[in-house]
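Dear Dr. L.,

I hope this message finds you well. Following up on our conversation about the binding site, I have prepared a predicted three-dimensional model of the protein together with glycine. For your records, I am including the exact sequence and ligand specification that went into the calculation, followed by the C-alpha cells. Please feel free to forward this to your student if that is useful.
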Amino acid sequence: MQDVIEIREEGRLLSRVLSGAGVGDIAAAAAPYGRIWIVYDANAAVHARKAAQALEATGRLAAVGPISVSEEGKTIQTVMDIEDWLLESGADRDALLLAVGGGITTDMAGFAASIYKRGIRFAFIPTTLLAQVDAAIGGKTGVNFKSLKNMVGVIRQPEFTLICPDVLETLPARDFRSGAAELLKTFIIEDGGNYEKAVALLGDIAAGASIASRSEELRRLIFAAAAVKAGVVSRDQFENGERRKLNLGHTFAHAIEWLSREQKRDITHGEAVAIGIIAAAKLTDSSLADKLRSDFEAAGLPTALPFPAKSLEAAMLKDKKAEGGKVHFVLIRSIGDVFIEDMTVAEAISKL
Ligand code: GLY
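The resulting structure of the complex is given below.
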C-alpha cells in the first residue's frame, strides 16, 4: 500500500483509507478478515471480478452478488434484497461485506451491513471519482425515501476504503466530471495548495488529456482530498459542526436533483453540486463566484441554475438539514476558507 490514512476519534481507530496499485490489492487489504461477501454494481463487474479472483486465491471468498444501481433504485427494498442474499448465502456475524461500485452502491451496502444481524463489518472499493473522494469515506450510509435523498440511513464506518485510481481509466467522462465537482469542493473547503493544481489537471483532462497519462497527479490529488475528508470526519463524525462544511453547495444541489427527478431532467449529483457551489459563492462574493464559474467550466462542469431560483425554494425546505425554515448554509470567504451561517431559504434564494 502506498498511502494509509487513518480516521481516528479521540485516538480510537474508526476506519482507514488505503491506496491500491490495482483492485487485486484487496487480497492484502482484507487479509485480517475472515470470509468475504462481495456486492457490486453490475456496471462495475470488471472490477468486482478482479476483486473476486484475488480473494478466491486466498480461499476466503464466500459469495458474489450484483445489484442494479440507479438513484431511483436507491431504496430500502434494494437494501432488503442485499439482506436476503446475505442470509441465503449463509453470512454470519463475522462476515465482511465488500462493496465494489460508486456512491450509491457503497451507501446501500454500508447500510445493509449496518443492520444485518445488528451490524456486520464492511469495506469499500469505490469505482468512481465521486466515491473515492467523498461518498465512500466517512461512514454515511443509507437510501432515498419518498423522493428525498438519503433520508433513511446511519453513520457507521467501513473497516477500510481501498482506492485504486486506475479504475477511473474506464469511467465514463460524465461520471468523471461528476466526481471532479466533489474534488474541487473539498479543496475549496481546505485548500492545502491543491485547488489550483486540481483546476489545472481537470482542465487538461476536460480538454482531452487521458487519465492514464496523468495518473500520478490524479492519485496525489485524490489522496489529498481523502485526507481532508478523513480529518473532518475524525473531528466531527456525526456532523454536529465542522462536518457540515462538506455539504458546501449541497442544499442547492439536492433541490436541483429533486426538481430534475420531478421534471425528468438528466442532471448528475456532481453536476448539481457544481451548480450549487456557484450558487453558494454568490451568497457572499460575486467576484469569487465568477472565478469559480470559470474554473468549473474549464473542468467541463455546468454552472448555471437549470431552474428559476424561486422554484428551488420548496425543494430546499424538504432537505433533511432544514430546521424551522432555516438551513445551515456553507458560505465561502475565500478558497480554503468556508464558514457556516444559518439563513432562511427565502433569504438565500433572494441573493441568487
Ligand atoms: N458527503 C458529505 C459527508 O460525508 O459528510
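In brief: The two ends are 46 Å apart (CA to CA).

With kind regards,
A. P.
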